[in-house]
Amino acid sequence: MRILVCISPVPDTTTKIAFTDNNSQFNTQGVTMIINPYDEWYALVRALELKEAGIATNVNLVTVGRADSESVIRKALALGGDEAIRIDTDSNDPYVVAAQIANYAKSENYDLVLAGKETIDYNNGAVGAMLADMLDMNYIGFATKLDVAAGVATVAREIEGGEEVDTCVLPLVVSCQKGMSEPRIPNMRGIMAARTKPLKVVAPADISALSQIVSYEMPPAKTGVKMFDIDHLDDLVAALHNDAKVI
Amino acid sequence: MSVLVLVENIEGSFKKKSFELVQYASAIAKSLGTTATAVALGNISEEACAALGQYGAQKVLQINDARLANFSARAYTKVLVTAAQQESATIIITSHDVLGKSVAPQVASRLKAGLIAGALSLPDLANGFVIKRNVFAGKAFAFVNVTTDVKVITLLANSFPIVTGTGTATVAPLTVSFEDKDFAIQVKEVNKVTGSVPLAEAELVVSGGRGLKGPENWGIIEDLAATLGAATACSRPVADAHWRPHHEHVGQTGGTIRPNLYIAIGISGAIQHLAGVNGSKTIVVINKDPEAPFFKAADYGVIGDAMEITPKLNEAFKKFKAAQN
Ligand SMILES: Cc1cc2nc3c(=O)[nH]c(=O)nc-3n(C[C@H](O)[C@H](O)[C@H](O)COP(=O)(O)OP(=O)(O)OC[C@H]3O[C@@H](n4cnc5c(N)ncnc54)[C@H](O)[C@@H]3O)c2cc1C
Ligand SMILES: Nc1ncnc2c1ncn2[C@@H]1O[C@H](COP(=O)(O)O)[C@@H](O)[C@H]1O
User: Which residues of chain A make contact with B194, given a CB cutoff of 8 A?
Assistant: First the structure.
């Protein structure tokens, strides 16, 4: 069984968000890129576990990103990915990302394609589902558990107010979130091995974006906190009713 | 031309989220000089469908195929694409929930339509078709323009006011031709937490952090939530330690919520936590540390021991509720 894991480079979670060019561009100056946590902690680690259990033969990685995302891809290889493809473009339109990955993956016959539930920068939560449609595969989103036996996947997924366990014959696209596996840290051997693992760079297909971010805005700053002490909680309740009007 | 909106029912009745969706769809339809059509799947009465007219739906397309009882993104996508083609819809709307997020991107892909995921506003038509949405889990907003003729939108819960009117929608059946592959997913088991308020669309949320020390202390959070009719949430380390279920975890790597009231108890207010909750209209913070960063993002604060303050606050709310009745 061959698994493809979609690895998105994203700004580190402690990044101070700022914009340039009249609030039209995200300011990448001084920003450290990391692997999108859902892709790393859940999609990739679970794929590696399936390989270690002898269920998967290959765990390949794909990233749609520019050359500056290579450190992120190397880290994913250090964790245990076999080989990586980088499609040399970037976009925050999920259609472009999915279509680029689909264009590469359609002739590769992957049995299982894993994505994260969403990227922590643009939060579309869409690429996995789009990719499934483009590859004509079934899709199970927001999975918290994944097992494969005899060509059938068993997947627990989030539903409103609970969880559901589904089965589906492969091939399948799954988007992954918490519950699936525990985060790992790359070891020295992995880091050394990653240096010589194949990282192929391919030119992007000609695909235009269907949406554009025209500008950004920061949320309004809070005007200051009003404090109450433990003996005046009735006043807090009154403020929530009369001033904030939320109860 | 029309605006299509997917509504979801829970055990035969539509919930708040669906009314909000219909209201949003009909507001867009109005601004484009057209009408809103809802698509209702599953076992729901004709009366309940017709009543969506109160929120502005002109028409409801109903499909009750037994095979749809098991959710399949592929089958739902086919339903929406069929309805969109039949109605010449140029805008297709779903909720930005686990169901909508599985279906809407596939509809967008199938129709080669631009997607706006997690919309927070009506489109600004003066400058194209521009909608506001969260990015960086709510640390910032982006204004996204969609240039394709057909557009797909998922609406973030609690983004649009609901006003109940008096209309009645016409109800018509929808026929879709499926293939076996649309139903390849088999449901083996469903585990629902019943009785609790769904977090994503809750107007009031009570949330606990590591300051509560352990799962055995969550009774005070649950009691306060019960008094308010609020949903419960938690910080990431709390879910990581299995004190609370994963789906309660909010923040940059958890859920993004925007309730009217967020009460944060024993949570420090780390940047990754704030990311998921700072869209809340009003934030109350209870923390024993006056320097806790959360106070900077709060509207109201109480400094002190959560074990002491939370039950007292619960009593104060109970007194308020009793006085109101
Ligand atoms: C990549 C990444 C992603 C992350 N994503 C998320 C996320 O999505 N959501 C999230 O929440 N975190 C996330 N985090 C973790 C985040 O950085 C913080 O570690 C976390 O939010 C802290 O949780 P906490 O406030 O419950 O605990 P702590 O930081 O331990 O804070 C506990 C607070 O409780 C107070 N306290 C202690 N005792 C009492 C008492 N008796 N009464 C009242 N107050 C008391 C303390 O003063 C303190 O402020 C992420 C971190 C990383 C690196
Ligand atoms: N640029 C990218 N390269 C590779 N995979 C991506 C990229 N962007 C998103 N993905 C994958 O799609 C998932 C959902 O992303 P999104 O729809 O952008 O929130 C991510 O968790 C990744 O697994």
Answer: 161
Residue A51 counted as domain residue: yes
Distances (CA, A) of B142 to A124, A133, B259: 12, 26, 20
Closest listed ligand to the CA of A10 = 2
Report the alpha-carbon distance of residue B292 to residue B273 in Å, rounded: 13
Is the minimum CB–CB distance between B125 and chain A shorter than 8 Å? no
User: CATH number of the domain that B221 lies in?
Assistant: 3.40.50.1220
* Tens digit of each residue's pLDDT (9 = 90 or more) over A162-194: 899 999 999 999 999 999 999 999 999 999 999
Q: Which of B134, B157, B183 is the C-terminal boundary of a domain?
A: B183
Q: State the DSSP code for A151.
A: T
From CA A207, how far away is CA B286, in angstroms rounded?
A: 50
User: For the domain that residue A200 is a member of, what is the CATH number?
Assistant: 3.40.50.620
CB contact under 8 A, B146 and A167: no
Nearest CA in chain A to B112: A210
Containing structural domain, residue B310: 199-324
pTM of the model: 0.93
User: Quick check: is A243 in a domain?
Assistant: no
Q: Which two tokens stand for residue A27?
A: 């300011």
**Domain-embedded: residue A36:** yes
Is B320 close to A237, i.e. CB distance below 8 A? yes
As for the ipTM of the complex, it is 0.94
pLDDT, tens only, B173-216: 999 999 999 999 999 999 987 666 788 889 999 999 999 999 99
Token pair of B70 as six digits: 């098991």
Tell me, yes or no, if B146 comes closer than 8 A to chain A by beta carbon. Answer: yes
Q: Which of B183, B214, B246 is the last residue of a domain?
A: B183
* Whole-Å CA distances, B294 to A238, B1, B243, B286: 22, 47, 21, 9
Count up the domains in chain B and report the number. 2
Residue A66 lies in domain: 2-216
Portion 180-219 of B in contact with A at CB < 8 A: 181, 184-194, 196, 198, 200, 203-204
